[in-house]
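Feature request disguised as a bug report, sorry. It would help if multi-protein outputs had a clear separator. Right now it looks like this:
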Amino acid sequence: LALPVGAVINCADNTGAKNLYVIAVHGIKGRLNRMPAAGAGDMFVATVKKGKPELRKKVMPAVVVRQRKPVRRKDGVFIYFEDNAGVIVNVKGEMKEFRQAFINCKTNK
């Protein structure tokens, strides 16, 4: 898992947020002295650090859509992105705004 609590990541949608701050990760029960961390596809609780004033200083759910740490697929290919990014969602997990920023993916065999 790539993004521990306290990480600041890019916001990849057109809500007006620039950065998301990871507060907590959904579904992590925890282990003594281990930081809860999120990976691609995980839902987490976030606040907006840079962006529109109406989005800042509010706690909202978000989902990780890109991570720098390589992830191994079943066919042996490692896939990773050039940055860490997330999108703001509602409680059901549906995106608040639908346009995503450009995605650049790299693979390694």
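(second protein starts here, but nothing in the output says so)
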Amino acid sequence: DSAIERAKFNVSKLKPYVDAGFDIVVPVPTCALQIKYEYPLLLPDDPDVKAVAERVYDVHEYLFKLYQEKRFNKDFKVSMGTIAYHIPCHLKSLNVGYRAVALLRLIPNTRVQLIERCSGHDGTFGVRKETFDMSIKVGSRLFEDMKNSGADLYVSDCPLSGNHIELATGKKVLHPIEVLWKAYGEE
């Protein structure tokens, strides 16, 4: 029941924006997946849920759409070197492709290395005392791949995975939006 109540609450806050003609751009794949696909499963007969779900975009999916429409600013000023990019599980479930990778590859003199492994976080599994050690063990191959990548930057769309990677490697993990911002010469 609490998931249904949260879905109703969130949709009630987002629906006025959809009615006003706005798209809903979401920075975290898990959240986009929830609103776009899971809310309609929880509330299949609610037309507001359907209306909101139809206007939800992953942030990189949206920016890539702007790129295709020639409305994306490609005036990057700073190279980002080599990026080790972790592909989050929920991004794969969204089925929108790796749009962040395509955008990051627009940055001159920047190489993006894909690392497709589980971080072991899995929601609360990665933070509960009784399962934390197991979650780190599950993510160990990802952490090793990140360390062995020789990358200048570690990047993930998922902040929970990013926290896990950071904890295991000692290296800060950025969201792709942060990398794009830096590439524009902003700090």
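Even a blank line would do. Unrelated, but nice: The CA atoms of residues 159 and 175 lie 7 Å apart.
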